[in-house]
Amino acid sequence: MTATRGALAPCLDALLDQALRGELGPDPVARRIAVAFTTSQAVRHDGRRGGYRNEVLSLRLGRAVGSCAVEPGALPEGTVEECAGADVASLLAHPLLPVRVAALDAYLMDVTPHTPSHGARPVALPAGSSLVRSKARAAAVVELLDVPRGGTVLVVGVVNSLLAELRSRGLSAIPCDLKGGTTEWGEPILTDALAETGRCDAVLASGMTLGNGTFDPLRRSAQEHGTPLVMFAQTGSAVLPRFLGAGVSAVCAEPYPFFWLDGGPGTIHRYRADDGGTS
To answer: Among 10, 19, 104, 210, which is most exposed with the fewest C-beta within 10 angstroms?
Structure first.
């Protein structure tokens, strides 16, 4: 982790408090969100049996966009209008956790963008179909795991391309998601990640855990079991690097616009705790 990131954050609430007090950058009272918007998508890749839906709240602060995924339809009506023009401090203290996360992400993205000087290492995503780009991202994420063939990875926030990539590398996956259900291959999806962290070699978790309140319990559980935790993040891509070395071993950060929004080439950013935040 680079010196510009400051002291390790003990939990998400503490990081929010630090931002509110102006300890991480400019006074958030003096910064305003210019644009607030949601992105809603439905996906069904060629050759895949199932599909899924996503909805993401995004806030624009200067050059930066901060984001937090939510369950489709979960945001109260008028949330976007309420956020547009609001000062960052009020949104860091907003009653809705996804708004707080998106505001913190925008603020930290502006303060510490994904650049090599802040510990990030860029990885190019190729142009192509949504499936081509999904597979490329999955490969970049899985490369952050330090698990030998035959090992087991708990995947929190099921993404079929990640499960396929793990399988191609001889790794077993324990799929887990609050929504339950089954994977593309008919495997049951478990709903209690904390019950599984003691029986895997590593945890691979979505940044969505920030927005639904499960990140800190998962991080603590991984620490208690000595299990490496790798995060793949569209939600909170600038937030999660703050936890490198504090229960998070690596982060694959993907700020807006996400790979599924465009067919052209793109960039994601990788961080590792064990080599100063680089990959």
So the answer is: 10
- Give pLDDT tens digits for 207-232: 999 999 999 999 999 999 999 999 99
Whether the CB-CB separation of 175 and 152 falls below 8 Å is answered with: no
Strand pairing of 172-176 and 121-125? Answer: unpaired
**Stated pTM of the model:** 0.93
Q: CA-CA distances (angstroms) from residue 32 to 24, 77, 133? A: 16, 21, 33
Task: HSE, CB side, 13 Å, CA atoms: give it for residue 254.
Answer: 26
Distance separating alpha carbons of residues 103 and 92, to the nearest angstrom: 6
Instruction: Give me the sign of the Cα torsion angle 141, 245, 89, 32.
Output: negative
How many CB atoms are located within 10 Å of the residue 217 CB? 14
Euclidean distance between CA atoms 171 and 113, whole angstroms? 33
Q: Look at the chain and count its residues.
A: 279
Q: What is the mean pLDDT of the chain?
A: 92
Q: Which of 215, 216, 266, 207 is nearest to 237 (CA)?
A: 207
Output the CA torsion 56→250→215→94 (10° steps).
Answer: -50
